[in-house]
Amino acid sequence: MICSEVPDNPGGSITNSAEAIAAGVIRANELPTPLVWIEHWPRESADGQDTFDLVAFSCYGVTERAPYLEQTRAWIGEATWKPLDRASVEVLVGTRVQVSDPRE
């Protein structure tokens, strides 16, 4: 799974919300775990070059966290990041990675 930051995102970053975003995606799509989670920052948001990180979570079990703004949130274990180059990402996902604006 590749999760891309939206250029000019006015809200919280995908890095700061990785545990909640991943949990929501896993739950909504009934994905098996553990899964390969790759965080992508487009060149518009990352000093002119696409960047990728492999994100590993301490636990992949989806749990409910205390309410935030009156809504409970799905959550998985704490995230850690390891930088990847595009070639490594393509090996992990099994295909060439063409990155476009995630808003399209």
Description:
With 104 residues, this protein is an alpha+beta fold. The protein has one domain. 19% of the residues lie in helices and 31% in strands. The chain contains two helices and six strands; from the N terminus they run E-H-E-E-E-E-E-H. The strands form two sheets. Strands 1-2-3-6 form a four-stranded mixed sheet. The protein has a two-stranded antiparallel ribbon with strand order 4-5. The radius of gyration is 14 Å and the shape is globular. The two termini are 17 Å apart. The mean pLDDT is 85.
Structure summarized in a few sentences:
The longest helix is centred in the N-terminal third of the chain and has 12 residues, at 18-29. This protein has one domain. It has 104 residues and is an alpha+beta fold.
The helix count comes to 2
Q: Termini separation (Å)?
A: 17 Å
Regions with little confidence, pLDDT below 50 for 5+ residues: none
Mean pLDDT: 85
Radius of gyration: 14 Å
- Global shape: globular
Secondary-structure element order, N to C? EHEEEEEH
